[in-house]
Write a structure and sequence with these properties.
Rossmann fold, seven-stranded mixed sheet, Methyltransferase small domain-containing protein, nucleus, alpha/beta, protein methyltransferase activity, binds S-adenosylmethionine, DNA_methylase_N6_adenine_CS, S-adenosylmethionine-dependent methyltransferase activity, two-stranded antiparallel ribbon, 22% strand
């Protein structure tokens, strides 16, 4: 079975929609590096919060391909221009996801509670003044408030609510977001974590963290953690992109087809 994601073409854009960048590429690399595990997981419901141009959700659908076996895909974005751009990106690649213009998953929590098997998020994570968070337009793509955590800290409890018992969450974070603290916070809720991809660029140091429910971690409201098996925090399982750099927006012919 072959799959292609490197030929995602620029078919639509908008000045207020986030154009895929190193963080988007790192997230897709993380998903690619875990593709075999994802196929074994057989996710029935996959979701992206903050789909932007549609690069990630389209890549995910193409990557899972026919082997996704009837999985459903949903993506949300608070920016209505992003919904249109994602729609056009998906259409031109022959894939379909339900697209919803909403704040994180507002209005969907009851419908989707406990049923999302795969959740992917590249949130606004850049530390900014708090009043820049959630502004109209392109600023909402990156403005993360204090320590870049404002939107992340709203997404995490929603993720917990939406994820199924076997659900996995992949999230982009920056060193400034204090990823180990995020992992500890999630561990208190019963989630193990590991850094799937760590990548430093000139501007930032990115971590793509994978979270999954671990029954050996006893969630404790008193902030204590009992954990016999989870990956110790700080241990990095870096795949350092063994995968060819993805091309995007109609550039070269780089192709990550495998057989
Ligand atoms: C860093 S961009 C990532 C876009 C795309 N997923 C990618 O990786 O290229 C963050 C996206 O999250 C969206 N976003 C910001 N706050 C949001 C919220 N509260 N609910 C839903 N989407 C949000 C932005 O509009 C933007 O499209």
């Amino acid at each position: 079975m072959s799959y292609k994601i490197a030929q995602i073409r620029l078919v639509s854009s908008h000045p207020e929609v986030y154009e895929p960048c190193d963080d988007s590429f790192a997230l897709v690399d993380a998903l690619l590096s875990d593709r075999n595990n994802l196929l074994e997981l057989k996710p029935m419901l996959c979701m992206e919060v903050g789909c932007g141009s549609g690069y990630v959700i389209t890549s995910l659908m193409l990557m899972l391909g026919e082997e996704a076996n009837g999985a459903q895909f949903i993506a949300t974005d608070i920016n209505h221009h992003a919904i249109r751009v994602t729609q056009e990106t998906m259409e031109s690649h022959g894939v379909y996801a339900e697209l919803i213009n909403t704040d994180i998953a507002s209005g969907l929590e009851n419908r989707l509670a406990g049923s999302v098997d795969l959740l992917v998020v590249n949130p606004p994570y850049v530390p900014t003044p708090e009043d820049e968070v959630g502004r109209e337009g392109i600023a909402s793509a990156w403005a993360g408030g204090e320590n870049g955590r404002s939107v992340i800290d709203k997404i995490l409890p929603v993720a917990e609510k939406l994820l199924s018992k076997r659900g996995w969450l992949y999230m982009v974070t920056l060193t400034a977001n204090n990823p180990s603290q995020i992992c500890r916070q999630m561990m208190k809720k019963g989630y193990a974590s590991k850094i799937v991809v760590q990548r430093s660029t000139v501007e930032e140091s990115l971590h793509i963290i994978k979270f999954w429910k671990d029954n050996d971690i006893e969630a404790d409201t008193n902030d204590t953690i009992t954990n016999s098996k989870a990956v110790p925090l700080g241990i990095v399982d870096s795949v350092r992109s063994q995968i060819q750099r993805l091309s995007f927006w109609g550039s070269s012919d780089i192709n990550t087809t495998t057989n």
